[in-house]
Amino acid sequence: MNVVEEEIGRIRKNESTEVVIRKTEFRGSVGVDIREYLTSERYTGWSKNGVRIPIELWPEFKAILDRVETGDEGRA
Predict the structure, then answer these.
(1) Helix (H, G, I), strand (E, B), or coil: what is residue 75?
(2) Phi, psi (5° rounding) for residue 3?
(3) What angle is formed at CA 56 by the lines to CA 66 and CA 9, rounded to 5 degrees?
(4) The model's pTM
(5) Domain regions of the chain by residue span
(6) Using an 8 Å Cβ cutoff, are 47 and 35 in contact?
């Protein structure tokens, strides 16, 4: 059995929290996990805050994200 566990990237949200994007397998289903990772004196580890997108829905989810306006359009 080939278990998928691949970190795609991280974005620092604040001093103690990163948003981590990983491709994972859970209960036999592959998906993209977007979850907070906390580092503090009280706790270091994964938060329950996040979302998991089944891999077969990823193209649809990505298309939605591609429609997000950042406000940077047209700036040089």
Answers:
(1) coil
(2) -85, 130
(3) 55
(4) 0.78
(5) 5-66
(6) yes
The fold for domain 5-66 equals Transcriptional Co-activator pc4; Chain A (2.30.31)
Strands (E), the chain: 5-14, 17-26, 29-39, 44-54
Cβ neighbours of 35 (radius 10 Å): 17
Q: What's the pLDDT tens digit per position in 8-59?
A: 999 999 999 999 999 999 888 999 999 999 999 999 999 999 999 999 999 9
Task: Kindly state the tokens that stand for 52.
Answer: 């998991």
Sign of the dihedral defined by the CA atoms of residues 67, 7, 3, 45, in that order:
negative
